[in-house]
Design goal:
single chain, 188 residues, 17-stranded mixed β-sheet, 1 helix, 6% helix, 54% strand
Length: 188
Amino acid sequence: PRVQPAAPPGRGGQLSLLSGPVTLTDVQTREQQPAALNWPLTSGMRLTTGGWGRAEVRIGSLTLRLDGDSEIDFSRIDAELIQMVIRRGSVALRARSRDLLPEIDVTTLRERITLDDAGRYRLDVVRAAGITALTVFSGGARIAADRFVFDVRSGQRGEFSTLPNTGFALQPISRDAFDDWVASRERR
């Protein structure tokens, strides 16, 4: 009997922009390679940007942009779920379709982020300082850790900290060079 090849996933990602050092790693085999433009992203891949690297990923109507020194695992990308773990760094998310929201699963190593609406978001994970910040430029989202759940609305930046004590604070949004780059990409 012939072995049938596995069906291709119903959805995949694609590296739509690369700048500077960007690496792809197969999480299971730990095999690394320099990322290549238009390379497909599938389940079980890790994308890492070097200190001055940046990357843009498109998965259907979802766009992710990584700043330098960032790392994200794509645990599962298929017709039912886009599951990712932002391990460190800064990642901008642009969710264009409300229909896709139930299929987007975003976590860090400590928190779960739930997007409540289509919009523009940024997640900053600073592990050494024990801070995860969720900025909502448009839309609405929640950040949850342990038994805590905090809402962050359009125009707000919520900072969740674990060191030395667990806490949450809403801060004003302050833009930086990464936000400017993301905005320029959005205008294209």
